[in-house]
Amino acid sequence: MQPEREYLVCSLRDCGFEEQTAEQYIQYAEKDCKTEQIRLLTRHRKKLMDNLHIAQRRVDIVDFMIRSVEQS
Hints:
The protein is mainly α and 72 residues long. It is built from three helices and no strands. It has one domain (3-71). It is elongated, with a radius of gyration of 19 Å.
């Protein structure tokens, strides 16, 4: 495997791309389809941010519960 492709595969895996989407991204990269690459990256970023916001709300609830127990 080429070093650039191997790095790209590792990066996509590390940021949570599903295998099929990662392969699609690699095909776009090999064909120099920057618009499609950006579209996939943007969609994945939105998904990650949605998950981050859900996790933050959960942390806020746990923090509230901790304060409630400490104050009682």
